[in-house]
Amino acid sequence: MNRRVTISSAFVVLLAGFVTLQGADTSRQQAETFLKKVAIIQQGGTSSSESATRAAAARRTAVTEGELNSWFAYNAPAALPQGLSEPKMTLIGNGKVMGGATVDLEAVGKKRGSGGALDVWSYLGGRVPVTVTGVLHSKDGQGRFELETAEVSGVPVPKALLQEMIASYSRSAARPQGLKLDDPFALPLKIKQIEVGAGQAVVVQ
Question: 104 and 127 in contact (C-beta within 8 Å)?
Answer without folding.
Answer: yes
